[in-house]
Amino acid sequence: MAVSVDEAVSAGPGRDHTPSRRRRGGRGRSVLEVALLTVLAVVMLFPVLWMIETSIKENRDVYAIPAKFFDFKVTLDHFKDVFAGSGGGRSALSVSFLNSVVVAGVSTALATVLGVPAAWAYSRFSVKAKKDQLFFILSTRFMPPVVVVIPIFLMYRQLGLIDNKLGLILIYTAFNVPFTIWMMKGFVDEVPAEYEDAAMLDGYTRLQAFWKFTLPLLLPGIAATAVFALIFSWNEFVFAIFLTSSDSVRTAPPAIAGLIGGTTIDWGLVAAASVVFALPVLVFAYLVRKHLVAGVTLGAVRR
Amino acid sequence: MAGIEVTTLHKRYPDGTVAVEHVDLSIGDGELFVMLGPSGCGKTTTLRAIAGLERQTSGDIHIGDTLVNDLPPAERDIAMVFQFYALYPHLRTRDNLAFPLRAEGLPKAEVQERVDEAARLMRLGPLLDRRPHRLSGGEQQRVALARALVRRPRAFLMDEPLTNLDAELRADMRTEIKHLQGELGTTMVYVTHDQVEAMSLGHRIAILNKGRVEQIGTPLEVYDRPASLFCAAFIGSPPMNLIEVEVADGKLRSQGGLVLTPPPGLPRDRRLVAGVRPEALEVTEPGAEGSVPARVVSAEWLGDEIIYVVDHGGQREVRVRMAPTVRFAADAPVGLRHTGGPPPVYDVDTEELVA
């Protein structure tokens, strides 16, 4: 599901570009554009549609040759199987979904709580070697995370954090804090420091001024940033599969991947689990689009 | 009300930038004091240090008899107006005005009374129930001024409050601020980079450059006798003509032959520059008495006056302010002569006024 993050990012600007380009070009060009975009949309969306179809097909329809696109019997059994275990009670998958919610939620909250005040400080105060510090913070995102899997694994083994939700929360927070600081710094820069100055003259301390006046103006930015962080933690696969092993700790991405393998694969269950897993991301991607626009048009102040 | 004393103020940021090198100011009770200078000269930092929004690295600040170095902004009993107004966006005008009073914990009736008074002074009646985003720039600035008024502070600090307004509104607000300050008699420190604003508002002006005070004086003093080459080039539009001169036969002579009356007490053996205001020169018919031959390079027709740019063989062209009735074509041969009294003279090397 790594693709969905990119989709979320490009959703906003992409929309703005198309009409302006169409205005510039002639009619022939716009027809070509629509045709190309349609092809692109079909190619991009087909796997998603197929996943949704498979999740509501009965098992024999899943394996039917030729493939059935429309005339199949709709069933919700796979979705039931995602949540309910075979012997009654909760399924291992539902436990992993819950783990995903806990790990992604807590790591996002932590990254926000740590990152937003840091971003505020970097934006407002003159700090020694500020640019170097910010570059250092960003540099942790230069390499692909998978590069550090082995060292992290060894360190975690020493610390007893292997197969432990806290371990995942910590590593996701570590990846999200730099992102939060950089993204939030942009938003804080947009809010004039004069609000805090005025509040301080009116009798508030600097922190109170931040809390009462700057923070409310930052909320759209915080929402957008948190949603990106949440999507990262929610989708993360590599660390989850290396650092966890038991069903009770595992998050959803490795758990769903774990369904594939063995002699028979229950594709219906895989598809249903994927649909359930993808839904929050789609919802959040929608929210990001809305809040990014809100963040840009913050404009309570005339510059 | 109170005067403000700033002694040997120095501000250095942790990243090593020195915003204020050395500033001494003595602002009188009830004075409208303007700090003028280009961006980065330290005027805003000085103001923020007075407000308590920046902690100076060294130096003392007194407001009235109180040493305020370690007092937080709220306890200094001052009000500040910002360039970006800083009205709280979620509050209506009325609540924006009442906010500092409520923060102080004043009783409701008094808050109401003071808000009404400030609203009347700044004519905000119809705007009281609007939020900032529904106010124009000028209206926002009036509300910001009123918010400073309700506090009845010992001093007003103004940080380029008119910079974001368009030219016409700026002139109106300038009059309004000057009038208001005169009526209330409250000490006001006003920071600006606009010399017209400084000249028209200030009882006294401090010109700052590179974190130091170059000159303090009344607008006329600053205009007539700039204390340094920097001030000479900064005040006036067009600025002073800086003409390199030599002393010969008891007169100041420029390279192009222009003769100026020397001020008394000129030092010898130094390279000198005379500061001649554009209105202290005159463009004449060629060959007029006391004139040197020159040529009109260009003319700016401003309606109420004409600015001639004239080349008289010196290193630099000079600017001359003439009445709109005196007309010469571009490139015409003309005469140039000095009409005023002795100009201020500067040392080229120290850039300071010598006579």
From TrEMBL, chain A:
Keywords, sorted A to Z: Cell membrane, Membrane, Transmembrane, Transmembrane helix, Transport
Pfam families: BPD_transp_1 (PF00528)
Chain positions covered by the region annotation Disordered: 1-26
Residue stretches in coiled coil: none
Subcellular localization: Cell membrane
Principal location class: membrane
Membrane-spanning ranges: 31-52, 97-122, 134-156, 168-188, 209-234, 267-288
Family: Belongs to the binding-protein-dependent transport system permease family.
Name of this chain's protein: Sugar ABC transporter permease
Organism: Microbispora amethystogenes
TrEMBL record, chain B:
UniProt keyword annotations, A-Z: ATP-binding, Cell membrane, Membrane, Nucleotide-binding, Translocase, Transport
Superkingdom as given in the UniProt entry: Bacteria
Gene Ontology biological process terms from the UniProt entry: carbohydrate transport
Domain ABC transporter: 4-235
A Gene Ontology molecular function term of the record: ATP hydrolysis activity
Membrane-crossing residue ranges in chain numbering: none
Recorded GO CC terms: ATP-binding cassette (ABC) transporter complex, substrate-binding subunit-containing
Name the record gives this protein: ATP-binding cassette domain-containing protein
